[in-house]
Design goal:
Layout lengths: L5 H5 L2 E5 L6 H12 L2 E4 H14 L7 H7 L5 E3 L8 E3 L2 E2 L7 H11 L2 H15 L4 E5 L2 H5 L5 E6 L2 H11 L6 H16 L12 E4 L5 H17 L5 H4 L2 E2 L2
Parallel strand pairs: 1-6, 1-7, 2-6, 7-8
Antiparallel strand pairs: 3-4, 4-5, 8-9
Helix pairs in contact: 2-10, 3-5, 3-6, 8-9
Bound molecules: adenosine-5'-triphosphate and the ligand Nc1ccn([C@H]2C[C@H](O)[C@@H](COP(=O)(O)O)O2)c(=O)n1.
GO biological process, one term: pyrimidine nucleotide metabolic process
EC number: 2.7.4.25
GO molecular function: ATP binding; CMP kinase activity; dCMP kinase activity
Length: about 240
């Protein structure tokens, strides 16, 4: 695959949204690395906010308490796809934000409007003039509706649960428990952001594709878009929403 001129990509914003475990982080990092773009994991920012709330004994079940402190933590995101970093108040929290306590509380924290306003402003600041792949739930619809390329990445619940279960080393309860947790989080998250493709997004279904195949397909869509030669969705085996 040949790359378009760096100029064509340097101002590009690539929005990748989708449900939990659909492969957003892995695919976004792979695409950013391949195309020489920066990478932003917005879910990590919501997780970092949640970690801070838990550390500071804020009642995450009380939206008013969360809102009152939403402006306090200093959240810093690194954008190198080879080494994504996330810090809160100077502490590297890349490992802590993936722990079960944060995963269990993040949906409630992310639903608080003051949290969203703060993090969306931070995300737009980082996106700046572009040259970045941004992944989350509301990137194409809210954070960067003018993004040059919009992807909605999905996969069956079975595939997502099996992949997450493997990633977690086949923890207690196996795939069935992982699937239940994933479905529960999607259900709560969907009250905050519709887990559906935004207008103009290309739907990529990763159920039957390897990670490498998905990266190849998404990078291809970005390149065609940057060159102004977007292929028709049918020839890509993907769906385009209007
Ligand atoms: N197409 C694929 N084939 C096989 N495994 C995959 C594929 N895509 C992603 N994975 C694996 O699935 C797991 C979940 O992927 P990833 O963390 O990128 O998803 P995510 O959408 O960012 O999840 P979350 O929303 O929970 O942060 C990882 O272990 C990843 O390596
Ligand atoms: N743009 C975003 C990104 C994430 N969230 C919420 C939804 C998730 O439950 C949580 C953690 O995201 P993950 O790391 O699992 O991708 O953050 C959101 O509301 N908006």
């Amino acid at each position: 695959m040949s790359l378009p001129s760096q100029q064509a990509l340097s101002g590009m914003v690539v929005a990748i949204d989708g449900p939990s475990g659909s492969g957003k982080s892995s695919v976004s990092r792979g695409v950013a690395a391949r195309l020489g773009l920066r990478y932003l994991d917005t879910g990590a920012q919501y997780r970092a906010m949640t970690y801070w709330m838990l550390q500071n004994k804020v009642d995450v079940g009380d939206p008013a308490a969360v809102a009152a402190d939403a402006g306090t933590p200093v959240i810093v995101s690194g954008t190198d796809p080879a080494a994504p970093a996330i810090g809160v108040d100077g502490e590297d929290v890349a490992v802590q934000i993936r722990e079960a306590d944060v995963t269990g509380a993040v949906s409630a924290v992310a639903a608080v409007p003051e949290v969203r306003a703060r993090l969306i402003a931070l995300q737009r600041e980082i996106i700046g003039g572009g040259g970045i792949v941004v992944e989350g739930r509301d990137i194409a619809s809210v954070v960067a509706p003018a993004a040059g390329a919009k992807i909605f990445l999905t996969a069956s619940q079975e595939a997502r649960a099996a992949r997450r279960n493997t990633e977690n080393g086949g923890g207690a309860g196996g795939v069935a428990a992982t699937r239940e947790a994933l479905t529960r989080r999607d259900s709560v998250d969907s009250r905050t952001n519709a887990l559906a493709a935004a207008p103009g997004a290309v739907v990529v279904d990763a159920t039957e594709l390897t990670l490498e195949q998905v990266i190849e397909q998404v990078a291809g869509i970005v390149i065609h878009t940057a060159e102004g030669t977007a292929p028709d969705a049918a020839s890509q085996g993907v769906g385009l929403t209007r």
